[in-house]
Fold:
Amino acid sequence: MLEASVNAFCEPIMVEIEGAHSYINVDIWEPENPKKVIFLIHDMFGRADDFIPLAPKLAEMGYRVVAVDLPGRGKSAALEADQYTGLVYVDVLLSVMRAHWISDASILGQGWGAMIALLMENVSRLKFSNLMLLDLPKKWSVEADESLAVWEKIIPLWADNEASFWKGLDENVPKGLKGRDDFMTLAGERAREIGGKFGYTIDPKILLGLRQNTELAFDLEKVLSKVKTKTWLVQGLRSLAPYQAFGTSVQPTKGLRRVRTLRATGISWSSDDILVPVLGAIQLFDDH
Structure:
């Protein structure tokens, strides 16, 4: 239950993407007089309400908390397959940030969302106070991302009832997947009942676009070396590939700090394994 001093509401916007206006869902939590803002960017197949356990706690710390359903996820509009690009995501996030900007502004990105957060910091002229990057992969590609392959199997699942949905989920998530129990919990939380059926509000064209360009790959060492903002890397000890064993030659003088936690991808924010370390790290960067 929210503290009385925290307001939670939805404030969607329309964003122009290649000449057409698309609906973008934005969820906000804030105290009465926020002095700072933090923008939350979900992972590849996440949604704004993934952050429900985290967001009100950040609002109680004085933040306006802004979480977006990126295009093709949750309540936001779907796009054409070739429109799901990094630059489109940046344009969407810039529109949201301008609408809710406070000069003391931070970003938290999770997994793939951490890459988008870093891209945002590199290409925009906005000045951020802090970046918190959870399970930022040193290298990423379509073929290397184990979690992407699992989501590719389960996104098409639709069932007439919840029991049938869970049966299909159990059959399609590999038994040997690292952190499988946590992944199942997260996958279950993201399912919704729509029109009497259970399934995911995730546009399959996101995967289609990725699979059509299997050479798409990211190597973030150079990008990270150019970061201008004080940055915290929260790295999982048991994360899904390719989020393991992140190492960087970027020197601490660049403002990088590292926090080790159990896992930051494939896990629900309702778990203290991620919630408590992240809240602690945010408190630390507030104090420095």
The chain has one domain: 7-141+218-287. The chain is about 30% helix and 25% strand. The chain has a mean pLDDT of 87.
